[in-house]
Model the fold of this input.
Amino acid sequence: MQKEKRARIAILGAGTIGGALARALAPEWPVMATRRELKKARPLEGLGVLLSADNTEAAAWADIILLSVKPRQVVPVLQEIAPFTDGKPVISFAAAISLDIMNRAAPGTHFIRAMTNTAVEIRKGYTVYACSGQVTEAERKLAEAIMEHAGEIQPVDESHLDVLTAMSGSGPAYLYTVVESLIYGALRMGLPRDLALRSAAHTLIGASELLLASGKHPAELRDSVVTPGGVTIEGLYELEEGRVRTAFMKAVCAASTQARKLAEEARVQAEEAIRPPFGADACVMPSRSQSN
Ligand SMILES: NC(=O)c1ccc[n+]([C@@H]2O[C@H](COP(=O)([O-])OP(=O)(O)OC[C@H]3O[C@@H](n4cnc5c(N)ncnc54)[C@H](OP(=O)(O)O)[C@@H]3O)[C@@H](O)[C@H]2O)c1
Done:
């Protein structure tokens, strides 16, 4: 389909994730991106992305909106664009902000809550998402086509999204730590820098792809490369002494706990922003039928 005939996508908050999504989607879809410091988004123009500092302009223009501002900014931005989002699909990539909070900030909007990672930039993201009840079949399909263009997608129960923030969202940081450690080990042993980096990164890709393709448990695949008195067992022994598996488990638990804590703080903050002014309810007199 011609790009001009496809759904128009607004990306509100063209920072790390919003910018990465814009770069992935712009070759195929008409995209308008916003941020307040517009000059920082100028490089996107070269990819055909329209820029605006006005969220309402982008929301009015778009058929579907991708929200990638920081969690703290989600409710104010939703309240700002609410006049233009009634009956429109909005995918939020913000951590911690629930469908319930978004529904109350901009009632009538059809929300999808997603979590992804920076690999969307090269269309290798892993995006998990949950739809609110208002999302139509056609909107879900459109949202899936957009998210799938940027990598793998997986519908999930919303209750899993805080832990998945620690896995999909934060995961690249943990895996870069693994790659960096392997590189430094190789450097200690005198391997050239570029060879160390390529060897670590390609090994990570190959191991991941084999894991998915084989359907085997990682422990089985690991055991298949261990030979008695061999090379790999020496490395694994050091990892066990360093309690690496415990450290990774603790990392996921700590990040998930933090995601849940932020979700709770966001809920309290959003309640404040959404709540009507003190006393507003008291001015509404019950009708005769209501009081009966
Ligand atoms: N980074 C990740 O790896 C990752 C992964 C998954 C999900 N996320 C989620 O993605 C969201 C963004 O994270 P990020 O790391 O991309 O943050 P970021 O780089 O700070 O991007 C947020 C962008 O929002 C813009 N912004 C702030 N207020 C705005 C407003 N009122 N209207 C329009 N734009 C506004 C900021 O630009 P200006 O200051 O110029 O306005 C900034 O460029 C977060 O909610 C996060 O939970 C991030």
